Every structure is written in structure tokens, then in C-alpha cells.
Amino acid sequence: MLEIELIDAKLLMGAASNAIQSGLTQVDSVQVDSVQVDNVQVDNVQVDNAHSEDGFASLYDNHLVHTLVNAGSNAVLILNERREIVFANQIFYDWLERWGDNSIQGHKPGEALHCMHATADGPGCGNTQHCATCGLLYALKTGLRGREVVKECRVLQENSDALDLRTHAAPIRIDGKNYALLTIENISHEKRRHALERVFFHDILNTAGNILGISQLLQEMPPDSREEMVEIMGELADQLVEEIRAQQTLASAESGELFVQMASVDSLATVREVAKLFAGHEVARGRILRVAPESEAVPFDSDPTLLRRVLGNMVKNALEACAPGQTATIGCRAADDEALFWVHNPSFMPRDVQLQMFHRSFSTKGPSRGLGAYSIKLLSERYLQGRVEFASTPEAGTVFYARFPLRLMPAWLVA
């Protein structure tokens, strides 16, 4: 445990430098002075009065401490036993500025990171049902209990952006009080790269391999019996292009470079188009996809390409959740001033899965997956002005709902 009481620059350089820059492995007592806390800014590291604690000012007044905590590439936080931020390095403040904020006053980590569950009406960061699966909260509590731990964490922000973080927590005592020292590494790009590699090295490679196999069969088949195989090869080629376009759409959506192309859309025609597309998809093999007979034709404004992408991901997820022989159902109807789409499958999602739904890197299907549900929410809520929900029970199975306004507002009114 890192324990700070009196100033000793040589000891600080030898122990704290190793501690902070190598992930804060355990360090025997490091000594730094105690001074009264004021609202100060030293070397661009800010302190909020509301979070200042007696005997804590030495950390802000000491130039060497600031040099060490700002020397690395990761955010550094110190939090008290109430899980409130009492210290943040410049990298963390740089994050806040990019999100249109520059204060940590009264904030817990989820609030500072703009976690949608922490900032929504409710009990706040660390106290919602979704917090039960939060890796950052687990790491923080572990550090406050006196143990070191490294955990990964997924944060879904208010604007539907997603953060993948690697957190390292270590206990620290300052003037006899317990704190947690938290280093946060943003690994979002690493996760995105892994997901993209999986798509290209698995999904797209599989589809391309199937096309190659059929083309080789065609060479051995008599001309009068090739028609069915040619049709299958055409469908596989369509799937290959669709997979690549899906990744292009997701990358553009996350970077804010996706433009909505508004047009008049018929809900039932779109549902039937998506159902036809996926009826012959590899993921539907051995499963049944049906259009709900009670579906209604609802005219509304949307981007047809993005809408098909959303509904296609809903259908794909439902088919993947079905066991062989089971049925997935897609439908639509009018609901007040909205067009409501739903996709049902008979499987039940356990509670821990439900709490992590829509997180970018979370999946029940293996590592580097989890883009389907995340992209459903991202495209629907950020670009199509819709809302995405789901319900799952052992008796009724799982239903995903997507609701869209009949008329899209101009983008400048939504921002």
C-alpha cells in the first residue's frame, strides 16, 4: 500500500515513479508533507474545493507529484471512501474537456465519465442495478478494501458513445485515511480493432470461402444444373458486400461522419425486405424467420438504409439466439405518433446479460463480438431519433423494440 505522510523527494522519485508509471505495484511508505487544502491549480492539475480533504493539499502543491502523475499516457484519479474524486491528473481533465465538461466537483467516476446509468434519474453512480456488472466499480471497491486489481470496464455514455476502459486500482493511505488510486487506460481503439479483425478474419473470410467453394463446384457441374448454385453464390456475394458496408456504417456513425438521407418509408415493406434478405442467410440455417401476421403498413420518414441496418441486426441477433427448429418473428405497427418495430425470439437472457446489453464490446457469442446490439442503439438513437428497448422473461422469451417518430426533426433541432 502507498502511504503518504511527509515529504522526501528522493523516496518519492524512487517509489512513486515506479508505482505510478508501472501500474502502481505495491509500494512501501512514500513520504510527502501535509498542508491545508485550497482550490488551486498546479501545473494544469486542478483541484475542486468540494473534494479537497484535510491533509491532501501536499499532493497539489508538490511539483514532483504532478510531474509523475502526468508523465504517463493514462488518466489517474484518487478517490475517497465515498468513491468521490478528490484528485485527477491532466489527462483526465483533457477527457472532460472533449466531452464539454471541466469539473469533477461532487462527481463519482461514472458521473465524470458521463455514464448514462450514473447520470440518469435514480440513485446515481455505484447504486443502480447496472452497476452490479461494472468493472470500474469493482476495481474501486477492491482498492478501497486494501487490495490491488485490474479490471476492464464498458461505459455507455449519455450520447450513445461507448468507452472501453482498463482500470487498475491500488490502495493508498494519506494522513491515516484510506483512498483508492485509480489509473484508467482507454482501450476503445484496441477493442474496435479486435472487433474489426474478427469481422474480416472470420465472418467475411467464411463468406468469401463459401463463394470460392461454390465457384469451384460450378466448374465441375454440367451447364444445365448450375442455376441453383449460381443463385446461392449471388446471395453469398450480397452477404459479403453487406458485411463490409455494415462496418463502414458503424465506423462512420462512431466518428460522427454519418449523414441521414431522409425519405418516405413503408414499415411493412421494409420488414418484408429484411425478412427476405435474412431468410437465406447463413445465420438462419435450420431456423424459421416469419413476419408477424398482425403487422401494419405505417408510412413514416427515415433513412431507409440505416433502418434496414437496424432491423437486420435485430433479426440477426434473434436468429443467433434461436436453437435449430425455433422461430424468430419480426413485426411492425403504429403506436401513437411512432412506428414500432419488434423482433422476438423464444430464448431468455439471464439478468447479468440484460444489464450489459448495448455495451459495445459485450457479447454472449464470444470475444470481439457485441457490435450488433450496440449498433442498433447507436444508429437508432443518435441518427434516427428513435428509442430501443427490450424485454426478456423465461416464459415469453426476448423481444427487442425499436420506435421511430413518424416525422424526423431537422438535425439542427435535435443537436
Largest sheet features? 6 strands, mixed
The sequence of SSEs as H and E is EHEEHHEEHHHHEEEHHEHEEHEEHHEEH
Count the E strands. Answer: 15
Considering DSSP H and I runs of 4 or more, what fraction of the residues is helical?
40-55%
Low-confidence stretches: 4-52, 366-370
The helix-and-strand class reads alpha+beta
Which outline best applies? Answer: elongated
Q: Determine the N-to-C terminus distance.
A: 46 Å
Provide mean pLDDT, rounded: 77
Radius of gyration, whole Å: 26 Å
User: In DSSP terms, counting alpha (H) and pi (I) runs of 4 or more, how many helices?
Assistant: 14
Beta-strand content: 15-25%
Can you offer a commentary on this structure?
This protein is an alpha+beta fold. It has helices at residues 9-21, 57-61, 63-69, 90-98, 109-112, 116-119, 135-144, 188-220, 227-255, 267-279, 304-321, 351-355, 371-383, 411-414; strands at 2-4, 41-42, 45-46, 75-79, 85-88, 149-156, 162-174, 177-186, 263-266, 288-291, 299-302, 327-335, 338-345, 387-393, 397-405. A hairpin with a 2-residue loop joins β12 and β13 (338-345). Mean pLDDT is 77; it is low at 4-52 and 366-370.
